[in-house]
Q: What sequence folds into this?
């Protein structure tokens, strides 16, 4: 596919579980919005885990490949425009509610042809205002295969009560081994990874208009106050102001 100067396109693609592709690169930059599913973007040095609600920036001429862990639906905003905070590396970007809502227009369909060009321009303008996030789950090198089924389950059924002991039996690895692998690859414990995936899901649901009460129930928090405290702490770490609609 070729993108001319000042041209932008949105393409929504569905990938089945276990799809993978070889290293490749594009002549244009693109933002990937994850509607559903979980996949890993590989560079020659790193593995970047993406979950629903994430927005990933891939600069032009950047070699990368993808491995899809679960049935996934992604929208790609292909553009020659560059964000003010452009990085020469693949990176996770923050997602504003309006960007999430605009991408949802292409999740299962697309806007009317007479309006699509206008929606795309608004999407480009809003997406370029997004900034790199400090909350990316980045691993050094290729991930150990034993972690993939754990990450798969976390992405499909994110909830705060799921424990590593619940998942260890399906991997053939002990709890101790899995924790060591998470620390080795992500410099974070299973609990840290679980909390990040749960908060990503909370943000996605919030951007879709779900109330904090319903999100707390969906993610199996013991109470609304427990969820609210966790969400506010998450926002502090990502330098964003929490806005909860109860």
A:
């Amino acid at each position: 596919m070729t993108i001319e100067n000042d041209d932008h396109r949105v393409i929504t693609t569905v990938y089945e579980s276990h799809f993978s592709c070889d290293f490749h690169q594009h002549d244009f930059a693109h933002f990937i919005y994850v509607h559903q599913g979980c996949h890993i973007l590989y560079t020659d040095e790193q593995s970047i885990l993406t979950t629903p609600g994430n927005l990933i920036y891939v600069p032009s001429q950047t070699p990368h490949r993808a491995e899809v862990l679960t049935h996934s639906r992604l929208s790609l905003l292909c553009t020659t425009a560059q964000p003010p905070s452009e990085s020469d590396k693949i990176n996770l970007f923050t997602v504003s509610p309006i960007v999430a809502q605009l991408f949802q227009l292409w999740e299962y369909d697309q806007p009317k042809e007479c309006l699509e060009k206008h929606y795309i321009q608004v999407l480009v303008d809003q997406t370029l205002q997004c900034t790199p996030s400090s909350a990316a789950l980045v691993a050094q090198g290729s991930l150990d295969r034993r972690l993939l089924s754990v990450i798969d389950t976390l992405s499909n059924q994110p909830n705060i009560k799921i424990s590593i002991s619940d998942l260890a039996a399906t991997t053939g690895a002990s709890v101790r081994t899995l924790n060591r692998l998470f620390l080795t690859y992500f410099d974070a414990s299973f609990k840290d990874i679980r909390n990040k995936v749960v908060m990503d899901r909370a943000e996605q649901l919030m951007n879709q208009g779900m109330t904090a009460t319903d999100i707390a129930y969906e993610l199996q928090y013991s109470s609304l106050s427990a969820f609210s405290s966790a969400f506010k702490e998450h926002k502090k770490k990502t330098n964003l102001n929490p806005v909860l609609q109860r």
Summary: The CA atoms of residues 32 and 76 lie 5 Å apart. Strands lie at 8-15, 29-36, 39-42, 46-50, 55-58, 65-68, 72-79, 91-93, 137-140.
